[in-house]
């Protein structure tokens, strides 16, 4: 059951199964707010190949004395998290999104994508990356997915990789720089009292199937929403609702094929759905 595969604290994981993104300037999974009564979801980037996550080490201030080391004080790192992300597929919409460029439609026959643009911008991106995993909690064995959410990234396209004669995998490489955020993906502020910190670079969580985020712009009328990527048969979905810049509250969400059902909320509120996709 889905409920047996949530809140897992010990698991094994491997591979690279899924990558998703959406433009975001707030650390939440949306950029432009959709029309009231409608929603928007994340887009998939196909061909996820590799990502190497290494968080920067703490700064160390050593103290010497008596011809030896007296001790040391650690400080938080002074550099952001960075990593390379590679894909087997070239996904033009992702390249355009991270560069702020627009592909050229040549008479509806050819698409020209712009490489290394001089006026490149670096829009903020919400990244969600997933790999297969299995729980190792006693009594809760089961297959699932381990996911990393980086809510506020700057991404730079590094090119289509090496070309060579013969069998040669040409991989599209992106360099990711991660900014810290002070809220959870649905808008709840991080606090030292509740969470032990005020800012983080990202989040890690476990699910039965590949997870994704959608947001819905409430209008106090509409009570159903068809998720952008469909819903897995396990019907696992949670919701949070609140004013755009306010602290959200839990929203009870039901499921009636193929839509989420809920009580209409205050006009202008933003509802965040976290659910699992086929």
Structure explained in plain terms:
With about 280 residues, this protein is mainly beta. It has one domain (about 1-210). It has helices at about 90-100, 190-195; strands at about 10-25, 40, 45, 50, 60-65, 70-75, 80-85, 105, 110, 125-135, 145-160, 170-180, 205, 210-215, 225, 235-240, 250, 255, 260, 270-275. The strands form 5 sheets. Strands 1, 3, 4, 7, 10, 11, 12 and 13 form an 8-stranded antiparallel beta sheet that branches. It has a 5-stranded antiparallel beta sheet with strand order 2-14-20-16-17, with no helix packed on it. A 3-stranded antiparallel beta sheet has the order 15-19-18, with no helix packed on it. The chain is globular, with a radius of gyration of 21 Å. The two termini are about 15 Å apart.
Global geometry: globular
Mean pLDDT: 90
What fraction, in percent, of the residue positions are helical? under 10%
What would you report as the Rg, rounded to the nearest angstrom? Answer: 21 Å
Strand element count = 20
Give the amount of beta strand, in percent. 35-45%
Order of helices and strands: EEEEEEEHEEEEEHEEEEEEEE
Low-confidence stretches: none
- N-to-C CA distance: 16 Å
- Provide a count of the helices: 2
**Number of folding domains?**
1
């Amino acid at each position: 059951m889905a409920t047996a595969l949530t809140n897992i604290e010990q698991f094994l994981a491997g591979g690279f199964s899924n990558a998703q993104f959406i433009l975001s300037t707030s650390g939440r999974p949306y950029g432009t707010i959709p029309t009231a009564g409608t929603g928007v979801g994340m887009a998939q980037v196909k061909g996820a190949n590799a990502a190497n996550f290494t968080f920067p080490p703490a700064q160390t201030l050593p103290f010497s004395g008596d011809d030896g080391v007296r001790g040391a004080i650690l400080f938080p790192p002074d550099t952001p998290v960075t990593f390379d992300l590679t894909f087997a597929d070239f996904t033009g919409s992702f390249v355009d999104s991270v560069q702020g460029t627009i592909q050229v439609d040549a008479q509806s026959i050819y698409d020209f994508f712009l490489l290394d643009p001089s006026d490149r911008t670096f829009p903020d991106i919400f990244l969600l990356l997933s790999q297969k995993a299995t729980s190792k909690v006693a009594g809760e064995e089961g297959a699932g997915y381990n996911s990393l959410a980086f809510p506020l990234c700057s991404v730079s396209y590094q090119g289509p990789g090496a070309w060579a004669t013969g069998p040669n995998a040409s991989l599209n490489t992106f360099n990711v720089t991660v900014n810290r955020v002070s809220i959870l993906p649905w808008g709840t502020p991080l606090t030292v009292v509740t969470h032990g910190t005020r800012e983080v670079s990202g989040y890690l969580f476990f699910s039965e199937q590949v997870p994704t985020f959608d947001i819905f712009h409430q209008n106090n009328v509409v009570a159903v929403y068809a998720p952008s990527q469909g819903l897995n048969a396990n019907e696992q979905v949670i919701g949070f609702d609140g004013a755009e810049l306010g602290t959200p509250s839990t929203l009870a969400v039901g499921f009636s094929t193929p839509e989420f059902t809920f009580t209409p909320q205050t006009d202008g509120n933003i509802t965040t759905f976290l659910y699992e996709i086929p």
